[in-house]
């Protein structure tokens, strides 16, 4: 199948592109390189050869998109381009609205103009927000707790409306990612963190483990969880990427429809447990201190993954140990811990009030 992948130069997008190429699909990445990297595109081009193309374009430029769609004639679109930093979305809500909502509308409009009938949209667990019914099931009403989450929920609505335009025999799928972690070593990413800097927990842990930062700041230790730290559903990036293969296959076989699938491991792990699992898997200790909670963070986030298993036949393969192996920085194989407890002298003082040292 010929698949047009927006945002394919980014973290999740590049891993999805690689898996699609490995399984024989034709892939055209469309990316404005605002946060993605040309180095990633070169690696994909090396792998995909004639099966791979790249278009530098912005999803908000509908005319340009139509031109590209007419040239490439995709069988399906995987739409991953977007802004994704929860904290930043409080500071720049308009930018998030423009990119995530207007950009999606523009993409769907170009897809309609070129009669493409399949769209797979990358969404997020952030649409569940403060919903109290964890594990989150796809039929829960959206209740985002950040502008980021709202823009993704709105974009989902657009995708749904587009898919439900029944007489066009379209299929639209929304995939809600929980906490993707890890990197494929194929991408020659020296630190194994996101090229755009990366502010996820895993990226922050790697920066500490490699000495770039002295210690990890854990946002809050008074949440209503067993150890007081947030619990997240960490899921291996390869599992996430393979779910897109399933989704593409699903759009081929399913009757024209709209569907939503959670992509998580179905298990939650606390921040402290994650640090411990990282130590067990890699021998690397991550010194930490507690700082006040971060705006917009939920206490617990966990996916109900039944629907993806039943309908798409997707089941995640990696456990927390495998995930920790995949976030291990380059040059660090399994080895004994360099030190057993966080050295207090390394704890940097900053303007933030410490909850606990
Ligand atoms: O330096 C850090 C970084 C993170 N955390 C904590 O680690 C957990 C995970 O944080 P991430 O930033 O890695 O992930 P989030 O759960 O906040 O957000 C992720 O999941 C969201 C959906 O819930 C969105 O999809 C978002 O884009 C994606 O990064 C949170 O409790 C956070 O407070 C820290 O304590 N210190």
UniProtKB/TrEMBL annotation:
Entry keywords, A to Z: Isomerase, NAD
Pathway: Carbohydrate metabolism; galactose metabolism
Cofactor(s) listed in the protein's UniProt record: NAD(+)
SUPFAM superfamilies: NAD(P)-binding Rossmann-fold domains
A Pfam cross-reference name: Epimerase
One MF annotation (Gene Ontology) recorded for this entry: UDP-glucose 4-epimerase activity
Key word Isomerase present: yes
Entry EC no(s): 5.1.3.2
GO BP: any one term: galactose metabolic process
InterPro entries in alphabetical order: Epimerase_deHydtase (IPR001509), NAD(P)-bd_dom_sf (IPR036291), UDP_G4E (IPR005886)
Domain NAD-dependent epimerase/dehydratase positions: 3-264
Main EC class the enzyme belongs to: isomerase
Gene3D superfamilies cross-referenced by the UniProt entry: NAD(P)-binding Rossmann-like Domain (3.40.50.720), UDP-galactose 4-epimerase, domain 1 (3.90.25.10)
Highest taxon of source: Bacteria
Reactions listed under catalytic activity: UDP-alpha-D-glucose = UDP-alpha-D-galactose
Family of this protein: Belongs to the NAD(P)-dependent epimerase/dehydratase family.
Family matches, as PANTHER family: UDP-GLUCOSE 4-EPIMERASE
UniProt protein name: UDP-glucose 4-epimerase
Organism in which the protein naturally occurs: Nitratireductor arenosus
């Amino acid at each position: 199948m010929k698949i047009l992948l927006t945002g394919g130069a980014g973290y999740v997008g590049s891993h999805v592109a690689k898996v699609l190429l490995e399984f024989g699909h034709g892939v055209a990445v469309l990316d404005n390189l605002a946060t993605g990297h040309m180095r990633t595109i070169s690696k994909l081009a090396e792998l995909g050869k004639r099966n791979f193309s790249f278009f530098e374009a912005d999803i908000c430029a509908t005319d340009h998109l139509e031109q590209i769609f007419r040239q490439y004639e995709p069988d399906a679109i995987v739409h991953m381009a977007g802004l994704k930093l929860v904290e930043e979305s409080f500071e720049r809500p308009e930018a998030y609205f423009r990119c995530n909502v207007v950009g999606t509308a523009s993409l769907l409009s170009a897809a309609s103009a070129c009669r493409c009938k399949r769209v797979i949209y990358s969404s997020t667990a952030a649409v569940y927000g403060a919903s109290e019914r964890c594990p989150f099931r796809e039929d829960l009403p959206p209740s985002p707790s950040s502008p980021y989450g709202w823009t993704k929920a709105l974009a989902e609505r657009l995708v749904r409306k587009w898919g439900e335009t029944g007489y066009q025999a379209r299929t639209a799928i929304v995939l809600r990612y929980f906490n993707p972690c890890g990197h494929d070593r194929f991408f020659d990413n020296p630190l194994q963190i996101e090229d755009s800097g990366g502010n996820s927990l895993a990226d922050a842990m790697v920066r500490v483990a490699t000495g770039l930062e002295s210690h990890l700041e854990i946002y809050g230790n008074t949440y209503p969880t067993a150890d007081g730290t947030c619990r997240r559903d960490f899921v291996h990036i390869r599992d996430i990427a393979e779910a897109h293969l399933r989704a593409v296959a699903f759009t081929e076989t399913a009757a024209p429809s709209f569907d939503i699938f959670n992509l998580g491991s179905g298990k939650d792990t606390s921040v402290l447990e994650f640090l411990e699992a990282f130590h067990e898997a890699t021998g690397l200790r991550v010194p930490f201190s507690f700082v006040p909670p971060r705006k917009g963070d939920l206490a617990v986030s966990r996916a109900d993954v039944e629907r993806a298993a039943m309908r798409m036949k997707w089941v995640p393969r990696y456990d927390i140990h495998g995930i920790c192996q995949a976030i291990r920085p380059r040059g660090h194989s399994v080895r004994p811990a360099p030190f057993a407890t966080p050295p207090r002298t390394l704890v940097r003082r900053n303007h933030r009030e410490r909850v606990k040292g």
